[in-house]
Amino acid sequence: MTIYQNLIAGEWVGTDASENISPSDTKDVVGLYARGSAEDTKTAIAAAKAAFPAWSRSGILERHAILKKTADEILARKEELGKLLAREEGKILPEAIGEVTRAAQIFDFFAGEALRLTGEIVPSARPGITVEITREPLGVIGIITPWNFPIAIPAWKIAPALCYGNTVVFKPAELVPGCAWAIVDILHRAGLPKGVLNLVMGSGSVVGQAMLDSRDLGGITFTGSTGTGKRVALASIEHNRKFQLEMGGKNPMVVLDDADLSVAVEAAANSGFFSTGQRCTASSRLIVTEGIHDKFVAAMTDKLKSLTVDNALKAGTHIGPVVDERQLKQDTDYIEIGKSEGAKLAFGGEVVSRDTPGFYLQPTLFTEATNQMRISQEEIFGPVVSVIRVKDYDEALAVANDTPFGLSAGIATTSLKHATHFKRNSEAGMVMVNLPTAGVDFHVPFGGRKASSFGSREQGKYAAEFFTVVKTAYTLP
Fold it and tell me: How far is it, in rounded angstroms, from Cα 90 to Cα 87?
């Protein structure tokens, strides 16, 4: 079987490899992907550092052309790449194709941004002096991405990094090297100069640690667990390095008595269970006022009964497998914790078998939960959702905000008063009204508050805040 190698200094290298196994069918080997070493990582960082002077001063048309060519190829290959994504991560095929499409849109957006780089010229307080304010690339960027969005998250980090003139060392999650390799291969063939983009696949303890230890990275952008995010922060502070963190969530979806029941159920089901609940924006806390509670639980249970759990590539599947055996164990451990805490298992919670061997778990709904339970406070990262009964809107808002996280929050209501108040008073970076908490646009800022995020926002024009530094220049003619 062909080994998909690392890209370092413009060359494909690496013979030590590991199998990429599909969670939908553990007999399906997606491919053999190289495992980089600490020395490989150091070489990649050195290559990115050497390439930075020329790339940081490259013309905007060159950057635009490469990013646009990348966007066009990704879009043209969306079914092929979507199948690859579904095989290696377990997202159902329609969701996987949607994610690939989003990656193409991200590259297309930043291809346009490369032509829209601007600055300011303002008068000085001193007569005769001109002040010029510009943005310059940060330097060598370390990019560390998770397994749950294996093409979209790399896209929304790599595209702005290159757009603004930075060079990149990219480490994807070990579970999903296929999409990472594909996107780097497309960019490489699109004409990136050697060393501008380097791919080092491998373990976090080896490749990731070598990145954290390097003094030559100007910044690290990381998406992953809260614990690892703290390690990235501490290492970056030691090296006086800029860092950006997107971490966990325990997102609330509030359902008020006046909500349209069908809208509330669709939003809650999408938020909690689609993509197998493996989204940092997933809503695993459904906070429901007592007047609609029983009807909502009954309707949610009916909805869950209608959802099919099966192979991600199989037509008619609504929920694919959990990503791997370790994540499945984490999910089932939390299901047992919920039972022991006194929550009522209203639906699901069982590991199931299908025609192909994989990591299949029924969507799981708890009722009679409280916000103090571990299943209500800790991120499970699977299709496990708790319903918390509250008296009224004021209590719902208080419970929604009673979490160490603050990424996304939703409310289902027909009241303009409550919707407006919730948008202003929710302690989350993103707020949805009558919509799922998961599912965001590619051209607007993404990020949260509290333990969910640190640093400037990702995506859209706000990406410039991380990937550039501001320079102020004074001129006396």
Answer: 6
Distance of alpha carbon 271 from alpha carbon 282, whole angstroms: 5
Contact status, residue 311 vs residue 318, Cβ threshold 8 Å = no
Dihedral sign for Cα atoms in the order 32, 35, 40, 42: positive
As annotated, the active-site residues are 246, 280
303, 199: one domain: no
Amino acid identity of residue 224, one-letter, is G
Measured CA distances, 283 to 94, 342, 377 (Å): 21, 21, 12
CATH code at position 319: 3.40.309.10
Query: Which residues have C-beta within 8 Å of that of residue 388, sequence separation ≥ 6?
Result: 285, 286, 287, 288, 369, 370, 371, 376, 399
Neighbours of 228 (CB within 10 A): 18
Tokens of 225: 């667990």
Under 8 Å between Cβ of 344 and 367: yes
pLDDT tens for each residue of 182-222: 999 999 999 999 999 999 999 999 999 999 999 999 999 99
Task: Specify whether 213 is located in the same domain as 143.
Answer: yes
DSSP state of 319: B
Residues 20, 156: one domain? yes
> Is residue 236 located within the same domain as residue 323?
no
- Structurally, how many domains does the chain consist of? 2
Q: Is the residue at 441 inside a domain?
A: no
Phi, psi angles (nearest 5°) of residue 403: -155, 150
Residue with tokens 């003094």: 215
pTM above 0.70, yes or no: yes
Amino acid at 197: L
Interatomic CA distance for residues 220 and 233, integer angstroms: 9
Token match 């290696």: residue? Answer: 88
What one-letter code names the amino acid at 338? G
347 Cβ contact partners less than 8 Å away, ≥ 6 residues apart: 300, 301, 304, 305, 362, 363, 364, 365
424: which 2 tokens? 């202003």
Q: State which residues form the domain around 280.
A: 251-433
User: 82 in a domain, yes or no?
Assistant: yes
Structural contact between residues 219 and 242, judged by C-beta atoms closer than 8 angstroms: yes
pLDDT at residue 68, as a whole number: 98
